[in-house]
Structure formats: C-alpha cells, structure tokens
Write a structure and sequence with these properties.
With 142 residues, this protein is mostly helical. It has a domain of 86 residues: Winged helix-like DNA-binding domain superfamily/Winged helix DNA-binding domain (Arc Repressor Mutant, subunit A, Orthogonal Bundle). The protein contains six helices and two strands; from the N terminus they run αααββααα. The protein has a two-stranded antiparallel ribbon with strand order 1-2. A hairpin with a 5-residue loop joins strand 1 and strand 2. Helix 1 packs across helix 2, helix 1 packs across helix 3 and helix 2 packs across helix 3. The longest helix has 15 residues.
C-alpha cells in the first residue's frame, strides 16, 4: 500500500476546504472548525502551504489566507510535494542514501523512477477544483 503522510493527507483536506470556502479569506481557526483538524496542525500546514506558494497570506483586520492560484491550477502533486517533498515510492528512488539491505544488488531500483513518475502524473491529473466539487473561483491579487 502506498500511503501519504498524515500531514500531506491533512494538507489535501485543508486545501480542499480553502477551495470550497465562500469567503476566500481563511484563518487557521475557521479551517480547523470546518475540517475537524486540530488548529495548531492547520496553522502549521497553512504556513507550509503559503511558503510553497499554494496559499497567499495577508495581515491585518481583513487578512488571512487564500488560495494563491485558481483551484483548477493547483493539483494534488503540488499539495503533497509541498508537505512531503518529491514523490518516491521507496527511499532508494532518490539520490539520498538508503538503509536498504540489498541496495547494491537490487534489480528493481533502476526501474523505480518510472513508477514514481507515473504516480506523480496521476496526482498531477487531479485538481483542487475537482476535489472541491464546485466551480473554481478566480482570486484577485492582494
């Protein structure tokens, strides 16, 4: 089974809630209330998603977070990679050292790139607008 981390899973929930929101200005508290996720987790995720360019933030009385791009332009791969980094099915699929016992003799490792690319492309084919099930809203620049 291939599984997202809990934070990446929650980030998809947060971003879907942002795409569904009637008021494009969101707070971590309002998203936490709407999704049932803990407010500190939502605040952390919204900060990470803003850092990745998926949410935009503004300060002040009318401030908050909003989608940085149209929901039709943000895909699951954008959200997952913003939280978990590049998608790979196994630790050895990247150039990062792995603790795998058979790394030197593995006949599958050279082919894992195509598997990871296929999963990545599948996630790229799903947009927030599709997940939200509502027409996407175009946000103005702040």
């Amino acid at each position: 089974m291939i599984r997202l981390t809990n934070l990446a899973d929650y980030a998809v929930v947060v971003m879907t809630a942002a795409a569904k929101a009637r008021d494009p200005r969101l707070s971590a508290g309002s998203v936490a209330a709407a999704t049932g996720l803990p407010a500190p987790t939502v605040a952390k995720l919204m900060g990470s998603l803003a850092k990745a360019g998926l949410l935009a933030s503004s300060r002040g009385v009318a401030g908050g977070f909003r989608l940085a791009r149209d929901a039709r332009e943000i895909t699951l791969v954008d959200v997952v990679e913003a939280i978990d980094g590049p998608i790979a099915l196994t630790a050895c699929a990247h150039e990062v050292p792995s603790d795998c016992a058979i790394i030197g003799a593995c006949a599958v490792k050279p082919h894992l790139g195509i598997v990871s690319r296929t999963v990545r492309e599948a996630l790229r084919s799903v947009t927030l607008a599709q997940l939200a099930g509502a027409p996407a809203v175009q946000f103005e620049e702040a």
